[in-house]
Hints:
The structure is a single chain. The chain is α/β, with parallel strands linked by helices. The chain is 31% helix and 16% strand. The strands form 3 sheets. Strands 4, 5, 6, 9, 10 and 11 form a 6-stranded parallel β-sheet that branches. It has a 3-stranded antiparallel β-sheet with strand order 2-1-3. It is globular.
Amino acid sequence: MLLLVLATGCESGDAGGGARPPAAHVAAPSTTATPTPPRRVHAPIAPGGMVFHGARDSRMVALTFDADMTPAMKRALKAGRIRSSFDRRIITTLDTTHTPATIFATGMWIEQYPAETATLAADPLLEFGNHSYRHSAFTTPCYGLPALPRDEETADVRRTAAILDRHVPGHTPYFRFPGGCHDAHAVRAVAAAGVTPVQWDVISGDAFGHDPRGIVRTVLRETKGGSIVVMHLNGAPTAPETHAALPDIIRGLHARGLRPVKLSELLSPH
Length: 270
């Protein structure tokens, strides 16, 4: 069963995360989105609601990685101030441990890394979701992110969906808010684009974190059946130690009897 909570406002947390969701949960309706294109996986959409985790009686968990890109990050790459916004070591670990995962990519990240996106899209362990076009805030304040005009929110989601259609056929209809920041208007705008907003219930602490052991402790302490864990694919300086923490996270989850799966499997109604 898929669990939802009503969106009540911007979630606070680190630069890539948010606070724990409110305690009140409601069951999602049984309706599903119309398949477009046919290969996509579908999840129920509840008006005014968003997903924070899957069924708690499950032993499955979802490791999710945000692939952020902003105009400022793109300028830094071009100027050589940042070497890369894609830490390939994370993917190597996922592949060598046969660990499924879900990537929430911005449209700008896909445009910056089209060949890499094609390789990731062909990896059977991985799936993609929508993380907006340029990682602008859907509500403010949001960690200094520039605000996206209200009347452009739905179009922004659709623009990125179109990029995903071209580069990642069969991508999931899931969306993650930049910075995790949202309000009721933003949730409605995302739903109007025909996608399901997906948050998390475990903040890894990898955003600007420099202690891989602390990241591991946080994830293993907070993760339970049905959890959605948020991490980042960018590497330094956004998430410099994700690659170092990931092997112990995966080992620790398995030791606790938890099985990492793609988000679409975690949220499947079957």
